[in-house]
Amino acid sequence: MAPPAPPKTPARPAAPTSTPLYLQAFNLVHDVLTGDSSLSVLIPFVLFALDAVLCGIVIWKVPYTEIDWVAYMEQVGQFIAGERDYAQMAGGTGPLVYPAAHVYVYTALYKVTAAGQNILLAQQIFAGIYLAALALAMACFWKAGTPPYIFPLLILSKRLHSIYMLRCFNDGIAALCLWAALFCFQHRHWSLGMLAYAWGLGTKMSLLLALPAVGIVLLFGRGFHGALRLAAVLAQVQFAIALPFVLENAHGYLGRAFELSRQFFFRWTVNWRFVGEDVFLSAPFALGLLGVHAALLVLFATTRWLRPAGVQSPASLISRVVAPVLTQFGSPFSDSEEALLSARAASPRFITTTILTANLVGLLTARSLHYQFYAYLAWTTPYLLWRSGVHPVVQYGLWAAQEWAWNVFPSTPASSGVVVAVMAVTVGLVWWGATEEYAPVLPQEKPEEKKR
C-alpha cells in the first residue's frame, strides 16, 4: 500500500507588478501637459500667476526705455488743447499716423499719468493691459483645444514684455483688442467681437491684416446679411471716432491715419534686412510683396477657409460664392445652409486658426516690421505650429529661433532671415497640417447645379 501523498502547499499569489516611481511621475507630467489629466486645467492659472510676478520684476528691475511715449503725449496734448487737424498734429518722433482711437486711449493715459510724467504708473497700466491680453489669449487657446504644453510659450517672450511694459506701445492695446474679438467670436458674441475689433483697428491699422479672415468667420457665423450688418458696424465705429477730425480736415485724417503709401526706413526693419537697402526701397519689391500677400490669401481662402462652404478652388469660389452674390444681390447660401455653416463650421478652432493664419500671412508679406509688431506675432506662432501637427520639439525649436531673432538689436541679415524663414515655414506647415477645422460641410456644387 502506497503511502499517502503529502498535502499540496498552496501556491503563493503572484506579487503585484508595480510601475516604477519615475515612470509614474513621467506619465503624470505627460498627461498634464497633453491635457489628459484633471490637473491640466491648472496650467494656465499657474503660468498666469508666474507671469504676473514676472511683470512686477520687469518694472522694478529693468530700466524704462523712451521711444514713442513722449511723442504720444505731445500729440494728445495738442488734441487736448483743441487741435483737430491731423495734418498739424505731431510729436518728437514725427507726425501722428494712427487712427482716432489711439488718440482717445492715450488721452486717457495722459490724464491719469500727469501728462505722461508718471512713467511708473503708465508701466503698471500696461502691465495690466498685457495680463488682460494674456488671459484672453489663454482662454482662446483653451477654447480651441490647445494642449497645455503650448502655454509656457505664452509667457516666455522677453521682447513681448518689453513692448508692453518698457515701451508702452499702442500695438499692445491693438493686440488686446484682437484677442478680445477672438474671444467674443469663439463664444458667438458677434457684435461685441466686432466692436472690440473695430476699436483695435481704430487704434492701429495693423489689424487690417486679419480683416479677410474676420469677414469669412462672420459669413459662416452670422450668415450673409448678418455679416453685412456687422461690417456696417465696423464702418460706423470708424466714422464715429474720426468725426471730429474729418470735419476739420478729412483728407488730412485719412492720409495720416491710414497712410498706405508710407515710406519705410531701412534702418528700422526687422524682417527685410537681408535683402539690402536698394531692394528694400524699390517699387518692384513692394509690389511683389503685395502680390504674394494676395496670392496667399486666395490660396488659403479657396483651399482651406471656405472649404466648409464647398469651395475648393478659385473656380468654385467664383461659381459657389461670388457669382450668386453678384447676380442675386444676396446670400450665396440658403437659410438651411447658413444654419449648417454656423452650427458646424464656425467652431472656436475654425475661428482661431483662420484669423491667426490671416494675421500671420499679412505679417510675412508686410512691407516692413518694427519690433513692436511682435505684439501681433508672439502668440500667433505657438498656436499655428501646434495646429500644423509638427512634433512638439519642432514647435519649441521654431519658437526659440523666432524669439532669438526678434531680440537681436539692431537687426542683422541673419536675424531678419530667421524672422522671415520662421514665418514662412509656419505658414507652409499650417496650410499643410491644419485641415480638421476645414472639413466640408456643404457639397462643392448645389443640388440644382448637379441636375444640369
TrEMBL record:
Coiled-coil annotated residue ranges, if any: none
Which locations, inside or outside the cell, does it occupy?
Endoplasmic reticulum membrane
Q: Which residues cross the membrane?
A: 41-60, 125-144, 164-185, 197-220, 226-247, 279-301
| Enzyme Commission (EC) number | 2.4.1.258
One annotated GO molecular function: dol-P-Man:Man(5)GlcNAc(2)-PP-Dol alpha-1,3-mannosyltransferase activity
Out of the domains of life, which is the source? Eukaryota
> Pathway, per Swiss-Prot/TrEMBL?
Protein modification; protein glycosylation
What's its membrane topology? Multi-pass membrane protein
InterPro entries of this UniProt entry? Glycosyltransferase_ALG3
Q: Which reaction does it catalyse?
A: an alpha-D-Man-(1->2)-alpha-D-Man-(1->2)-alpha-D-Man-(1->3)-[alpha-D-Man-(1->6)]-beta-D-Man-(1->4)-beta-D-GlcNAc-(1->4)-alpha-D-GlcNAc-diphospho-di-trans,poly-cis-dolichol + a di-trans,poly-cis-dolichyl beta-D-mannosyl phosphate = an alpha-D-Man-(1->2)-alpha-D-Man-(1->2)-alpha-D-Man-(1->3)-[alpha-D-Man-(1->3)-alpha-D-Man-(1->6)]-beta-D-Man-(1->4)-beta-D-GlcNAc-(1->4)-alpha-D-GlcNAc-diphospho-di-trans,poly-cis-dolichol + a di-trans,poly-cis-dolichyl phosphate + H(+)
Which keywords annotate this record?
Answer: Endoplasmic reticulum, Glycosyltransferase, Membrane, Transferase, Transmembrane, Transmembrane helix
Does this entry carry the keyword Endoplasmic reticulum? yes
Q: What does this protein do?
A: Dol-P-Man:Man(5)GlcNAc(2)-PP-Dol alpha-1,3-mannosyltransferase that operates in the biosynthetic pathway of dolichol-linked oligosaccharides, the glycan precursors employed in protein asparagine (N)-glycosylation. The assembly of dolichol-linked oligosaccharides begins on the cytosolic side of the endoplasmic reticulum membrane and finishes in its lumen. The sequential addition of sugars to dolichol pyrophosphate produces dolichol-linked oligosaccharides containing fourteen sugars, including two GlcNAcs, nine mannoses and three glucoses.
Instruction: Please give the family membership noted in the entry.
Output: Belongs to the glycosyltransferase ALG3 family.
Question: This protein is called what?
Answer: Dol-P-Man:Man(5)GlcNAc(2)-PP-Dol alpha-1,3-mannosyltransferase
Q: Source organism lineage? A: Eukaryota, Fungi, Dikarya, Ascomycota, Pezizomycotina
Q: Which gene encodes it?
A: ALG3
